[in-house]
């Protein structure tokens, strides 16, 4: 199996550093070939990669001792503890009041929290970030949506009755309620359109507030 482009783990980098210390006269090209053989790589790391590993030896070795980094040296810790805590508190409040949570609702609330924070960190609130946040807090909305969908479908299916009886009784009533149904459908479409417009306006307002906050922070640091 090809290992081209494969990243070295923290442990592997530490072995490269140890090899360099054992044989300090070895140049980067030779050390690159040693790394290829030692870890059975398809291609050797570049000289620049080896140089970066050697020059960052102290940082790499510190990461190996840290329990908060992954095998590749990434830090999975939250970027903003304040955002994490406030969003968690919001989730708990929603649960206490039986408010149904959605990914969109969490993302919107997270943006509101960031907008209110002083010196808020740069954060794009990506789909990946939200997925990791949900995983950290044991949130999964998929099952709830499916259950609601099934319940809605079940409610829409009428009970098994004699079709002749249903036609005789329901048809006149249905004809009488058709105008009302059309009116309700039109109102629903208008409400849906207005909701979309409000969401667009809110998004633009948040962008405007972020620009104002950025300008205010820049003025304070002059």
From TrEMBL:
A UniProt-annotated Pfam family: HTH_Tnp_Tc5
Protein keywords: Coiled coil, DNA-binding
Tagged with keyword DNA-binding: yes
GO molecular function terms noted in the UniProt entry: DNA binding
PROSITE patterns named among the record's database cross-references: HTH_CENPB
Keyword NAD: no
Residues annotated as domain HTH CENPB-type: 71-143
Coiled coil: 188-218
InterPro entries: Homeodomain-like_sf, HTH_CenpB_DNA-bd_dom
Protein name per UniProt: HTH CENPB-type domain-containing protein
Organism the protein comes from: Peronospora effusa
């Amino acid at each position: 199996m090809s290992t081209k482009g494969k990243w070295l783990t923290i442990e592997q980098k530490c072995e490269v550093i140890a090899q360099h210390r054992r044989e300090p006269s070895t140049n980067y090209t030779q050390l690159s070939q040693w790394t290829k053989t030692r870890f059975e790589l398809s291609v050797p790391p570049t000289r620049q990669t080896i140089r970066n590993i050697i020059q960052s030896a102290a940082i790499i070795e510190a990461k190996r001792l840290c329990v908060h980094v992954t095998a590749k040296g990434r830090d999975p810790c939250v970027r903003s503890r304040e955002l994490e805590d406030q969003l968690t508190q919001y989730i708990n409040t929603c649960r206490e009041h039986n408010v149904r949570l959605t990914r969109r609702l969490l993302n919107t609330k997270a943006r509101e929290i960031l907008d209110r924070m002083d010196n808020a960190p740069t954060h794009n609130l990506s789909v990946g970030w939200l997925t990791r946040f949900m995983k950290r807090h044991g949130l999964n909305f998929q099952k709830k949506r499916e259950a609601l969908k099934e319940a809605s479908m079940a409610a829409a299916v009428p009970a098994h009755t004699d079709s002749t009886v249903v036609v005789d009784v329901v048809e006149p009533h249905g004809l009488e309620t058709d105008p009302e149904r059309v009116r309700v459908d039109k109102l629903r479409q208008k409400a849906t359109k207005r909701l979309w417009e409000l969401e667009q306006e809110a998004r633009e307002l948040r962008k405007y507030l972020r620009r104002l906050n950025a300008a205010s922070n820049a003025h304070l640091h002059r």
